[in-house]
Fold PX-domain-containing protein.
Amino acid sequence: MPSDDEQDLPKTPPASTNNELPPDFDVGINTSAAWTESRDKGRSLSDEETDPNDPELDYLQTSGKPARALYSFEGKPEFREVCVSAGDEVEIMREEVGDGWSLVKLFVEGGVELGLLPRSYYAFTADFTSSPSHNPREVSNSSITPRGSPKLDPQPIMPQHTGEWFPSFRRNLMGGKSLNRFSSFVTSGAEEWVLKGAPEDEPPPPIHHRLTSEPDEVAETTLSRLGVAEEDLHYVDEGPSWKIKLPPFRILVHSPAKRTSPLTGSYTVYSVTSLFRQPDSGEDFKSESHRVTVHRRFSHFLALHTALSRRLPGIALPPLPEKQYAGRFSDAFIEARRGDLERYIGRIVRHPVARYAEVLTFFLSCEGDMEWKREMPKYLNTPPAGPSFYAHVFHPAYNLDTEELAETANRFANHTRAVGKGVQGLRNIFAQIRQARVEMSRAERLLSYSLLSLITSKPLASSSTTIVEEEEDGISPLGDNCKGTMNSDGAWCWREECTDCLKLTKSIQKTADALQSVADMYDDHARRTQLITHEALKGVSHPYTTYAPILDTHLSTVTRYHEALASTAEAHEEISARCETVLNTTMAEMETYHSQKIEDFETLTKEHLDGEIQLYGQIISKLKAARGNFDEPLYGSMAQTPRQPSIFERELENPRLTNLPLTQPTPHVFDSAPMRPVSVAIQEGVGLFLNAPRSSVFGKFW
């Protein structure tokens, strides 16, 4: 079952049976929700669950809205898609089933087909005749509806669930790859915008996309009348690049605390603080003029991600960290989760469009639980923006180099692939560097113990070194009760009251103590400072996967754009204009990656160098202090008192050389090999159910 830390998302009323899915189970989280959104009143559409009284079984007998196919479409049977030719007459049984798809009934020779068809591929007609003999044609090979299905005894409809049953589990099992079959060009609403423009209930402002990046007075009046808020208007400047409407600010996720609820059990809450700079303060966030702190659970971040995905379909949002089903309250995991959430929300507020989204403002400012539960469902229940997002994008005329649109996308794809591969190699090398620091810590500590063993004649545990102990002339140096190894003052000498050896002994002892401090510095640097950098490398490790939907939309639009430019029809001129809007959006996203890449790698490199400088600066300071013990007058003053034993002498018989394993970063969502131990157990557990009906899987976990 889901973790307690992720249970308090606003939910719609539960289904009528115990084994039915929550209505919003996989809506909006990087998956297709075509069939999950098609449920009526929470009815399940699992492949194995059928209800004799389910009204969907009557779709083959009932009539829908008449429509005619505008374009040919070759569907795939494994996704319950129908094949149509331009001009075919269909009936729309459900206009919106999610991600830009409709449930349609198609009349064919000997029966009917029922399946999915993109919303932008048909238009409603007023004089449709529902006779199945009207305009008959051969049953398409892609249909899985039996030929000649009798109308009075229809075969049960078994819709294919197109979303992920367990998004987190399947991502682990399938190597971190998304299994979403639907093209981003369709699911984002870009295709519907290109073919049809804005939705019928929301006419676009006049020629907003061809003349100016700012809406004129008529456009502003139209937008105001339609209730379009300023945060829903997005501007592209020359470049193309997104126009910055709000200055950047900083987000800190800190102070995790465990809490317990009588309803949901234990969970972790994080403090989320927004820091706003004073005017003309540059990059200095220390002198912020205002700060706002709220408390958020992981499920709150999940709700934010879902709402942003629905309202900003043309934006490349960073992936949300994976859920955790065990070990959620260990200190290591809580700190790793805190860092992941801080990097996630930090990348959101860095985006010039996402950071002024209304839902983000609400997320960062809502302080009361009652207000959250009252207002957040409004954002989650708002229909996906789809083509409306592109209808609200304004850009200058002739802002594109039409000759290089496809070439630019190909170069961008190759570059992001190379960056991802290079960063993966860097992450592996960085793990070795951290391990080398731990080994250096061990070597410095061993050197310290060896010096103490030398001046005290106390043996160092043989298991700690490979040095072979030899006896000279058959005489053991520890014989005769160690007489002669040290005098009564603790000096490394056989003579009594030898001040020279006393000064030397105490100075070497202080050197050994300093080396212990150096060993601690190396170890702490690898486990704390370098771990932060190692974790931060995840944020730049999979740029191609993050921007793949943007590239898909871009290349699909380029194809439509060139087709429209090659046509002389007046309608195609409007299509080409709308294509320019989409292409300005995708090019602005590529520019956003470009600027963020520079900032990310500059920050990562500077932080690494600053950490190394600080480490070696502390080491040099400690070594200089040890070296100063051999200089006058400090060296001479050491002969005034007897030597006191070092606190590390007691460790010679059992030296601290066995270090704990290095803490490794938690895996990125798109990593091909998850590293969390709990993932292995989860994968093995889910593997037991892979051959079982899906309903049984939900019965076990939900």
User: Anything to note?
Assistant: Residues 570-628 form the longest helix (59 residues).
